[in-house]
Amino acid sequence: MSLRRPQRWQMRQLLATSSLFLLVACAEQNTAADALPVAPQKTSPVAPLTTAAPTDADGFVLPSQTFDQWEAGFRQQALQAGINPALFDRAFAGITPDPSVIKADRSQPEFTRPVWEYLDGAISPVRVRKGQALLNQYADVLTQIEQRYGVDRQALVAVWGMESSFGQFQGDKSVIRSLATLAYEGRRQGFAQDQLIAALQILQNGDIQPELMLGSWSGAMGQTQFIPTTYNTHAVDFDGDGRRDIWNSAADALASTAHYLQSSGWQRGQPWGFEVQLSAGFDYAQADGALRKPVGEWLRMGVTLPAGTRLPANAEQLSAALLLPAGYRGPAFLVLDNFRAILKYNNSSSYALGVSLLSQRFNGAGYIYGQWPKDDLPLSRTERLELQTLLTAKNYDAGTPDGIIGANTRKAIRSAQQALGWPADGYPNHKLLESLRAH
Ligand code: CA
After folding, report:
1. With 60 as the cut, is the pLDDT of residue 344 above it?
2. Is residue 164 part of a domain?
3. How confident is the model at residue 32 (pLDDT cuts 50, 70, 90)?
4. Residue 43: pLDDT above 60?
5. Residue 268, in any domain of the structure
6. pLDDT value, residue 57
């Protein structure tokens, strides 16, 4: 991956589940437990569920069995799920835990790249030129994919560029080994186990050989970076060779991406959204992904278009949310259904904006009129934890501090901003942190 995508793995997992906040919270608990003393293992057969398991020096729970013991138990589960014993044994031949996967699973990046730097990387001139060349090279197959799934070619090629630099960086780790490691001692073992069963099903289906089933440390595979469960529900054989090959076939990868976006609510022929401007005194609390209104209503509320731009055709009735990726001082966008479909691919508004603007840049558009507040750098993880702690201490309930700015934290930030008489954009910044520290 050439791009740094904070929380990418966590977010990708959420596609497979509805318990978004629960999963993220659980993921964070191991780290929050860093400071806890190591609890002795209870020997009582009726030990309460809250008994703390033994942990290592960093507070991570130690596996209660050896890898071989775990593998023997998991083999039974896989066989019960319909996996052929010979296939299981071949897939697991010589498999040992991969320490680099555990290291990646436990890393909590301290610093987040500002959205404007992220977008500079996502929409680099090299990537734009490569994408334009591929749009030409695959014009025929893209026409067929558009007809079949209704997703426009620029968006598909943009996702392809963002996910794997058009197939160049797919990850070179054994998917079985990575997922076995995570199922054995990762932070989300149940999730990893489900993915591992799905990966074995892919092998059993004959789509790929075990030694060629490569991906990222988290088990995201091929040119589309699908996790195994998403592969099983959405990968397609578009080139007609009988195998769903998202590793080596661009046609399969592009069509699989289209199938997934179609299932995620993509609307044929609609734009992702468009840049807007907000009048002075606009109620910035309206910038909330869950608050959707027809474009026409936003316009009546004082949302305008940058000089020289026009409303996309027939957009007045479309349902839109207001996005302020860097708070009220930065650019503003009205985002439509197709933006939401991209979020299902990777639940990060920076990612969705990157895909959206890149898809337009292939046609020479997708430039932003507003100015980024480059003096306002994102808070570090330590600062986000402190912000959440201070908000909760002042009765703005930000939930258990986890360093993740989710819906609860944004709501708490808005309340604090309103009490201060500031624009309530829900955006965490240093000015707010300093104010909370001082009072
Ligand atoms: Ca194929």
Report:
1. yes
2. no
3. very low
4. no
5. no
6. 73
Does 395 map to a domain? yes
> 299 is in which domain, residue-wise?
273-335
pLDDT band at 291 (very low <50, low <70, confident <90, very high): very high
Distance (angstroms) between ligand 1 centre and the Cα of 261 equals 19
Q: What is the 136 CA–ligand 1 centroid distance (Å)? A: 21
Number of residues written out for the chain: 439
Distance from residue 434's CA to the centre of ligand 1 (Å) = 56
How many angstroms is it from 206 CA to the middle of ligand 1? 11
CA 251 to ligand 1 center in whole angstroms: 8
For residue 280, what pLDDT is reported?
Answer: 82
In the chain, the number of structural domains is: 2
Burial code (b: 16+ CB inside 10 Å, e: under 16) for 239-255 equals beeebbbbbebbbbbbb
Give 59 or 220, the one with higher predicted confidence. Answer: 220
Confidence (pLDDT) at 85: 98
C-alpha 237 – ligand 1 centre gap (Å) = 4
Residue 52 has a pLDDT of 63
Q: Distance from the CA of 257 to the center of ligand 1, in angstroms?
A: 14
pLDDT, residue 129, reads: 98
Q: 5 versus 98: which is more confidently predicted?
A: 98
Contact 364, 128 (CB under 8 A): no
Neighbours of 417 (CB within 10 A): 22
Going from the Cα of 248 to the center of ligand 1, the distance in angstroms, rounded, reads 9
CA of 213 to the centre of ligand 1 (A): 15
Q: Which residues face 323 on adjacent strands?
A: 333
How far from the centroid of its chain's Cα atoms is residue 175's Cα? 19
Look over the chain and give the mean of its residue pLDDT values, rounded to a whole number.
88
In a domain, 389, yes or no: yes
Strand order in the sheet with 303-304: 293-294, 319-323, 332-335, 273-278, 303-304
Calculate how far, in angstroms, residue 322's C-alpha sits from the geometric centre of ligand 1.
Answer: 40
Q: Is residue 42 pLDDT above 70, yes or no?
A: no
Task: Report the alpha-carbon distance of residue 110 to residue 301 in Å, rounded.
Answer: 38
CA distances from 389 to 213, 222, 399, 409, 411 (A): 43, 40, 9, 10, 14
